[in-house]
Design brief:
- It is a single chain.
- The chain has 251 residues and is α+β, with helices and mostly antiparallel strands.
- It contains ten helices and four strands; from the N terminus they run ααααααββααααββ.
- The chain has a four-stranded antiparallel β-sheet.
- A hairpin with an 8-residue loop joins strand 3 and strand 4.
- Helix 3 packs across helix 4, helix 7 packs across helix 10 and helix 8 packs across helix 10.
- The longest helix has 21 residues.
- The radius of gyration is 29 Å and the shape is elongated.
- The termini are far apart.
- The N terminus is likely disordered.
Length: 251
Amino acid sequence: MSLAVSAFTGERGAGLDVFRIIMVVVSLALLSFLAPADNPSTGTADASSTAEPADLLRKCPILKRGQRDPVDGNKCVRELQKKLQSLGYDQQLTGIFADRTEANVKAFQRSRSIDPPVGIFGPKTRDALLGPPQQPDIPEPIFSTDPCTNTRCSIYLSRTTTRKYAGLIAERPLAATAVSTAILRTACAQLKVLFAAVVCQVVADHYAARVKTALANASQQHACLRITLTRPDASQVPLTFTPDKSSRCQA
């Protein structure tokens, strides 16, 4: 401080010297605050921090070392850091994914047996940190059926149901499994044949990708989605999804 005072002596009096000293100190403090670091002061809460971290983090992409906010227009890194901090990790809110954040993500991954613990905030870490996403409400399907044979049965989702399901998955990709479950549940409840029970044991998410693609194709063609159960054997797939514009297809 004595050096700073001597630098300003003889200028315009003691009052001006004190004013300049104060401005130098304030400027240095601001520069220190604004300099990037992984552990600066947390400061006051910003407007986005009032939202639930889980809501924001679910919208965020994969996060890894070197990224900084904003990410896709959101303060994703900061919200991740807030979540880690709430779990007791020594984590400052910087908005920068640097050493400390990576180390804490790795520690969390090890605690949840996420292998390998690479320090990247991806889908498995997201679900472990936030809990599995809440499944959306799936509207009951409107459909028609074909008479079953000894080897084959089909149901036809209406054009309206097909379009609604396709739109729901396009808006919320994680809903694909829930939609697949609803379709399989409907098929298995309606197609009461001996071999249906075998197919109905298939895990819904195994077919989620096929359902998503088939719904999108059928919706683009303004068609219904036909779900066909076939007696399982070595030559045929037991469950197929096909766009359909036959007389069975309802509006």
